[in-house]
Design goal:
disordered C terminus, alpha/beta, FAD/NAD(P)-binding domain
């Protein structure tokens, strides 16, 4: 049986792995079969991760994090967790391959996915003018014309923030009125750089290698028109990847995993959560990494408290009548 299994290979998962491995906890990290490396694999230059003054490509940063985690003994499995049993002191993780692993503790760091519009040009030009993160990419659009898609609080916040860089920000919204709170709306309405395009949806994102415009469809009469611009920020929501733990861990009203205060402790002892899956607000690589640190340190304390109580999880499993972990064949 493992001391700890980390689920997720983004900045939170790999940082938790670095700390856990350096604490001799010999972590197993389940990285995903197709999306290993997390959200930064979908981007180009990362200019705001400390330590890289010349910027670093997202995939290169993730490769370095993995290298660092493996250097101290992290084992990385390229598979997906398809089932999770967190009841009792022995946690069981089932992978897509059918293999199961047991551990005394789990760090859940599966991130969150920005909602997509779901059109061809959006996917093709993602990272080349299509962005899901104003904090991350706003800086690249100095004196440019851009659009923000969405009508909620985060869309208004992103649009207002982006006026620090862009010369013009269109807000594209499907209806005639916004969902955003009154104060966020008023702030956006008062900003001279923001122009609202009502009753409109993005039918396509235009451009070969970079965004040159969008095709707008009028939601009332169906007519279309092109709007030339340099970038599109999609701000239509974010879905924390929590489907594995529905009805197992408590969630917040935002759909993120509930954790106890500033810790990574979830509602189930021995299960810790870190990164964007617990964070409805900041969602940055460096905050996710910091959160991974918290999780690894919490795991250490948890395991130490089990040892202090003279009841490592393996013994507790036998007491509870669960199968002997060693006989199941952990990794
Ligand atoms: C396009 C884009 C550009 C960005 N640019 C920046 C930037 O410049 N600077 C910055 O600070 N932040 C940036 N961000 C935000 C940053 O990427 C995230 O805040 C950060 O990656 C979150 O880290 P995480 O470890 O919590 O989750 P993620 O990076 O999302 O990683 C979660 C991982 O868990 C895996 N996973 C999920 N479910 C399972 C499962 N069942 N089994 C196994 N694995 C699973 C996923 O496949 C993924 O690999 C950007 C985000 C996007 C989308």
């Amino acid at each position: 049986m493992r001391k700890v299994i980390i689920i997720g290979s983004g900045p939170a998962g790999f940082t938790a792995a670095i700390y856990a491995a350096r604490a001799n906890l010999e972590p197993l990290l389940i990285a995903s079969s197709v999306e290993a490396g997390g959200e930064l694999m979908n981007t180009t230059e990362v200019e705001n991760f400390p330590g890289f003054p010349e910027a670093i490509m997202g995939p290169d940063l993730m490769a370095k994090m993995q290298e660092q985690a493996e250097r101290f003994g992290t084992v990385v499995a390229y598979d997906d967790v398809v089932e999770l049993d967190v009841d009792g002191p022995v946690k069981t993780v089932t992978l897509g391959s059918g293999k199961t692993h047991e551990a005394e503790s789990i760090v859940f760091a599966t991130g969150s996915a920005p909602r997509k519009i779901g059109i061809e040009g959006e996917a093709r030009l993602s990272g080349r003018g299509v962005s899901y993160c104003a904090t991350c990419d706003g800086f690249f659009f100095r004196e440019r014309t851009i659009a923000v898609v969405g009508g909620g609080d985060s869309a208004m916040e992103e649009a207002t923030f982006l006026t620090k860089f862009a010369s013009k920000v269109y807000v594209i919204h499907r209806r005639e009125e916004l969902r955003a709170s009154k104060i966020m709306q008023e702030r956006a309405f008062a900003n001279e750089k923001i122009e609202f395009v009502w009753n409109s949806e993005v039918a396509d994102v235009l451009g070969e290698d970079a965004v040159t415009g969008i095709l707008l469809r009028d939601t009332v009469d169906g007519s279309t028109r092109e709007l030339p611009l340099d970038g599109v920020f999609v701000a239509i929501g974010n879905d924390p990847r929590t489907h594995l733990v529905h009805n197992k861990l408590d969630l917040t009203e935002h759909g993120t995993i509930w954790v106890d205060g500033r810790s990574s402790r979830t509602s189930v002892p021995g299960v810790f959560a870190a990164g964007d899956v617990i964070d409805p607000t900041y969602r940055q690589a460096v905050t996710a990494a910091g959160s991974g640190t918290v999780a690894a340190l919490d795991v250490e304390h948890y395991l130490a408290s089990l040892a202090d109580a003279g009841q490592p999880a393996a013994d507790a499993a036998e007491i509870d009548g669960l199968p002997d972990a060693a006989a199941v064949g952990a990794a």
